[in-house]
Amino acid sequence: MGDKQETQAQSTQGQGVQMLEVNEGQHGQRLDNYLLGRLKGAPKSLVYRIIRRGEVRVNKGRAKAETRLATGDMVRVPPLRLAPEEAVQEVSENLKNLLASSVLAESHDWLAINKPAGLAVHGGSGVKIGLIEALRQVRYDLPFLELVHRLDRDTSGCLLLAKSREGLLALNAAIKDKHMDKRYLALVEGRWPARRDWVAAPLARYDAGNGERRVRVERDGKRSRTLFDVRETFVRATLVEASPITGRTHQIRVHAAHVGHPLLNDAKYGSHEGMRISAQLGLERLFLHAHSLGFADPRSGRAIELKARLDPALDAVLVRAREAR
């Protein structure tokens, strides 16, 4: 299942100096990502701190976080002594079982998960553990595991991870070249106009004033485009399929709100009316679900199409919306 010397860095007890050898599957990987993958449970802040202080050595020399490693390189890792408050928490049995039951498909190069809503894809900003950290603890048989793309914490559905360096590069290239098809189901406020099948509005990040970063439409923002297709119309809401052509933060949510149809139960970009409708429908989370993901397998070139079912709570909301018609 994996080298026991590579298990979690935890508590103030730490562990001794480690000498890690880079294998072929890790060739070309950045030093920071290599350490995050090997030091199961170590927070990003600690990894960057020991690199910055020169405590991590590559072939006996200091290295930067962006240093690319080569097969056969020897990486020295100092003893890890974590204060209890900065240690990444261990994966609970409930989370282990949830992740195990959420696997959609897996190959030599990639792993697809139906990400639960409420689980951040990675730790940080007060989040002790995210999906990637949890999977690295659970799947310690995998020497390489990286996120191919991200989903918002409150968004559920198809999430793709790479199990090899080659797979990560190929899948990242597919995203960059727009050869990966991502489709989401969203329940929005009001009746979405049948003729509005796309929204193009430039997006820019800004500081909301409380340290939280948000996104809004701005003339000088980054070019952004989302396709929308009406799937089902209700009295006060519409189920739409959204396909982001560009991959900006919160793109679907901001584009929908920009044209007057914010997602239901969206605490960041929604409306008071949308929250009222959400309460009436018994919706207790953001209704945004990555239900479909299509791409070419990096190894075989075979077309892969993954689908993630709505969770029962969202299905129940649609049932109640239909009953109100």
Task: Write structural notes for this entry.
- It is a single chain.
- With 325 residues, the chain is of the alpha+beta class.
- The chain is 23% helix and 26% strand.
- The chain has helices at residues 31-38, 44-52, 93-101, 131-138, 165-176, 251-258, 272-281, 312-323; strands at 18-21, 57-58, 61-62, 74-77, 103-106, 110-115, 146-147, 156-162, 181-189, 198-200, 203-207, 213-217, 225-233, 237-244, 288-296, 303-307.
- A hairpin with an 8-residue loop joins strand 7 and strand 8.
- Residues 1-14 and 84-88 have low confidence and may be disordered.
Quick structural summary:
The chain contains eight helices and 16 strands.
Question: In terms of topology, how is this protein built?
Answer:
Layout: E1 18-21, H1 31-38, H2 44-52, E2 57-58, E3 61-62, E4 74-77, H3 93-101, E5 103-106, E6 110-115, H4 131-138, E7 146-147, E8 156-162, H5 165-176, E9 181-189, E10 198-200, E11 203-207, E12 213-217, E13 225-233, E14 237-244, H6 251-258, H7 272-281, E15 288-296, E16 303-307, H8 312-323
Parallel strand pairs: 8-15
Antiparallel strand pairs: 1-4, 2-3, 2-4, 5-6, 6-8, 7-8, 9-14, 9-15, 10-13, 11-12, 13-14, 15-16
